[in-house]
Amino acid sequence: MYRIPFSFYDFASYLTTGFILLFTLDYLLALGWVTGPYLSAADGVFLFVLIFIIGHLISQLAGELANRVERYLGQPAELLFKPKKGFFQGYYRPLPQEIRTEVLRKYAERTGHAEPGEGMFLHCFHLVKLRSAITYERLQIFIGTYGLARNLSFTCGLVGLVALGTVLTTGRPLCGLVAITALTFAYLLYLRYLKFYRLFAVEVYISYLFLAD
Asked: Which among 112, 127, 125, 32 has a CA at the least distance from the CA of 75?
């Protein structure tokens, strides 16, 4: 059966982030595109398409930025096996020792390798995907959740920076409040992204451990 290649989280992310960015830019810069006195049906269709396109662009840019930051923070695929200290201590928290040992043992038995990293993660994810449809559906929820949080964080960061620039150039006090609120949301949503990004990897390794041989 044909399946739509977008999930609920995709539509929620694209439309929500696109609308937030367009609406706030329209308000802060007084463009009148969205908050104007009258919008025709054609204007509404055009704005919907524009919002969807902006949402796609935000997703792409947010993903690129997250990948660059990840090079500094590290990937859960490795951090779950190699304890590390840092500011985001919850993100760095490893799996319990006994689980780490068993996952590595099972991986070594199947592949002959025992070094945790991206290769091991891809191996584990592929087997879980093939052998457990229920777990794979659960993993898609994790992917959608952390993707939505990442995109919203990026959007709020953009809004905060634009609002900050606006208050510095125009002196509008409300823009200062918008800047503080948006940047705070950006930080909190980024923490949520890290949380579910880590839980996604945890779910992969735990499910892999209990796969039948």
From this structure: 125
Q: Cα separation of 163 and 7, whole Å?
A: 32
Contact 88, 187 (CB under 8 A): no
CB-based contacts of 119, cutoff 8 Å, min separation 6: 113
Q: What is the pLDDT of residue 2?
A: 41
Delimit the domains of the chain by residue range: 8-209
Per the document, the length of the chain is 213
Taking each helix axis from N to C end, the angle separating 118-131 and 97-111, rounded to the nearest 10 degrees, works out to 80
Structure tokens at 13: 């992310």
Place of tokens 């792409």: 60
Condensed to tens digits (0 to 9), the pLDDT of residues 135-175 reads 888 998 899 999 999 999 999 999 999 999 888 888 777 88
Q: Tell me, what amino acid is at 207?
A: S
Flag whether the pTM goes above 0.70.
yes
pLDDT, one tens digit per residue, over 48-63 is 888 889 999 999 999 9
